[in-house]
Amino acid sequence: MIKNGIITEITTRNISASKVIDARNLKLSIGWCDMRSHFCDPGLESKEDLMSGRLAAAHGGFTDVLLQPNTAPVVASKNEVSYIRSGNQYNLTQLHVIGAVTKDTKGIELTEMIDLHHAGAVAFSDGFEPLWHTDVFGKALQYLQKFNGLLINRAEDKMLSSFGHMNEGLQSTMLGIPGIPQLSEELMVARDLALLKYYNGRLHFANVSSEESLAMIKTAKRNGLKVTCDVAAHQLLLDDSQLANFDTNYKVNPPLRGLKTNKALINGLKDGTIDILVSDHRPEDEEGKKLEFDLAAFGMTGIQDFGAMLQEISKQVDLELLIDKITYQPRKLLGLEVPEIRKGQNAVLTLFDPSKTWLFDEHSNQSKSRNSPNFGKELTGKAVAVFNNSLMLLDSDLVLT
């Protein structure tokens, strides 16, 4: 029983209420938390804004979303942090801020991360841009230890990947497209772990996409380093063979790898090497995607259709484990309050229907962008009810009595 946003009763007996959800065969958990999304606002609102992003997230089952700092201007001052968080008191989906590590995410000059922390930033990263400068990376690890801050880095050596557009391998050779080698990621993971061992601190790798990267992270964890990592849902389900028709909706960074890597990432989820599952929602307008493949922007949307991807992944990984990686684990890492399904607690809940079929199209899409390979398809698996902040979103087809 939920009343005024509070769980007032948990019982097996019948309860009289204005709305009763028939939840047989559905899965109830605390609200989903996405640790990697881009809502493009401020500055790039033609692709997404805070309102459309919140709607897409809520319809995707998310009560909390962590946003990338790659806006215009970059999230590098109290003003940007305040702007992003200002609507939280009125909305179901709560937005959390990643502050930029360096000014304009250029990797050269550190931002005032302590000020950003006090303003409400919950982690620090240059987002899509890797922290390439070794000295800056080390100083950032030291700086953040003053308040036990979390450094997030997407490992990529841009000198090796700057001319690539897809995974380097047989498929890229057949298509004649310059490739991005896994070595680009692996070199940076090795470097970052060596620096973490030297400087100490807390480090999180975003969008891991290599078997060797996973092996190094697993060893580092075993050796006591404070390191974690995440993987994007699409990296578990798609591979570079999907690029045979030059569909730019499959152009992402890190790129889709091969089937062998997919299996390694699945195993990494199962054995705990990968801590968190993310949507890596990255909207792009048509001007960024309807181009020749080598000119098209990287990225795909993934927050609203996340439930369908979750259901597909659950064919290989236990659903309970997956839900843990989108609820408890990200909040634990970020130091966010972990909701409880208990009498007297705020209702922060997601109700998931693994067998729900729905059409992801112009009518159902809540994002301003539609750069998703799932767009226009009938999907299976959907969050059908979301509760948070005394608000609720119910699927139009949900059975109510």
Largest sheet: 8 strands, parallel
Query: What's the N-to-C terminus distance?
Result: 14 Å
**DSSP helix fraction:** 25-40%
Please trace the helix and strand order, writing H or E for each element. Answer: EEEEHEHEHEHEHEHEHEHEHHEHHHHEEE
Strand order of the largest sheet: 4-5-6-7-8-11-12-13
Query: What is the CATH topology?
Result: TIM Barrel
CATH superfamily: Metal-dependent hydrolases
**Bulk shape:** globular
DSSP strand content = 15-25%
Number of spatially distinct domains: 1
Mean pLDDT: 97
Q: Quickly count the helices.
A: 14
- The CATH class, by name, is Alpha Beta
Overall structural class, as computed from helix and strand content, comes to alpha/beta
Report the CATH architecture.
Alpha-Beta Barrel
Task: Report Rg.
Answer: 21 Å
Q: How many strand segments? A: 16
Low-confidence stretches: none
Describe the secondary structure blueprint for this structure.
Layout: E1 2-3, E2 6-7, E3 27-30, E4 32-37, H1 50-60, E5 62-67, H2 78-85, E6 94-99, H3 113-119, E7 123-125, H4 134-144, E8 150-153, H5 158-161, E9 166-167, H6 170-175, E10 179-180, H7 182-199, E11 202-205, H8 211-222, E12 227-232, H9 233-237, H10 259-271, E13 276-278, H11 286-289, H12 306-313, H13 319-324, H14 328-334, E14 349-359, E15 378-388, E16 391-394
Parallel strand pairs: 4-5, 5-6, 6-7, 7-8, 8-11, 9-10, 11-12, 12-13
Antiparallel strand pairs: 1-2, 3-14, 14-15, 15-16
